[in-house]
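Attaching the record inline, Q. Sequence:
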Amino acid sequence: MTKQFIIQEKFTGYADITIEAETEEEALALYNRGHYPDSAYDRDDMFYDFEFVSIEPINLYQGA
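Structure, as predicted:
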C-alpha cells in the first residue's frame, strides 16, 4: 500500500500591493498591519529558489 506525504518547501516570489496613504510611513504601517484589501494584492505567477524544508507522513488510519 502506498503512503501519502506532505512535503513543505519555501520559495521566493514577488507581489505588488497598492495601498492608499498620505505618507510612505503610513503606507508601511498599513502594510505591516495587513490593512489593505485582497484586491490590492497583485502576485507574480513566477516563483524562484525553491528549497526543501521538511517531509511528514500523513496518517490516514489512526485507529485505537
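Residues 5-57 form one domain. Strands lie at 5-17, 41-57.

More tomorrow.
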